[in-house]
Amino acid sequence: MSSFTVRWVPRWLRVIGPVIITYCVFGLLVEAGVPRFFPENAFTTYVGDAAKAGVFAIWFYLIWRIVRTLQGLYGAHSARYLELTPIWKILLDVTIAFVLAAFCFAVLYVYIARVQGPAAFSGDLTLGEALYFSIVTMTTTGYGDISPKSGLAKFLVSVQILFGFLYNVLFFSIFASFAGRKRPG
Fold it and tell me: What local confidence, expressed as pLDDT, does residue 156 receive?
């Protein structure tokens, strides 16, 4: 075990954490698919409600992965971290966190659109359209074909823009640290 591995996380949590996140993503997909793809019944309601409660686990996981990567890159043991951790693993961690964040925001947008109706966004959002809108928002591209209308939707979009901006800064700082990495000589 390397010196920068988080030692306070028990082994069972390292195993059960991805299982919980997978269940939450599955549940959020079910929740987003009601009533278009799945009928609204007791099972879909239960799975959707449990996944909404578990979405906080995904956000805590994302924050933990981002902090862990930053500690590895800029912490006291950064030289050792960069020597021992393959570049592909760091980039995979960063990419997975980005995709999970975009997906979580997309599901939130579908949920808001379903609860608030046409007052939430400029158009009806399916999960696919919400994922497109989430990625366009997080990368700060902003085509303007879908826009938030309600106060809650505008707030969440603002949070996602800030998250996306900070995440892009993190992503490019990782590339800068790779460029500054000393190569064995």
Answer: 94
The residue segments making up the domain with residue 26 are: 11-179
- Among 56, 70, 66, 69, smallest CA distance to 104 is for 56
Question: Which of the four pLDDT bands, split at 50, 70 and 90, describes residue 114?
Answer: confident
**184 in any annotated domain:** no
CATH number, position 45: 1.10.287.70
Q: Give me the sign of the Cα torsion angle 61, 67, 69, 71.
A: negative
- C-beta pairs of 108-116 under 8 Å, 24+ apart in sequence: 108/156, 109/133, 109/134, 109/153, 109/156, 110/31, 110/32, 111/31, 111/32, 111/52, 112/150, 112/152, 112/153, 112/156, 113/153, 116/150, 116/152, 116/153
Instruction: Give the separation between CA 170 and CA 162, rounded to whole angstroms.
Output: 12
CA-derived radius of gyration, the chain:
19
3-state secondary structure of 108: helix
Q: Mean pLDDT over all residues of the chain?
A: 79
Residues 65-91 have pLDDT tens digits of: 777 777 777 778 777 777 787 878 877
Is residue 36 pLDDT above 80, yes or no?
A: no
Residue 38, pLDDT score: 80
Domain count across the chain: 1
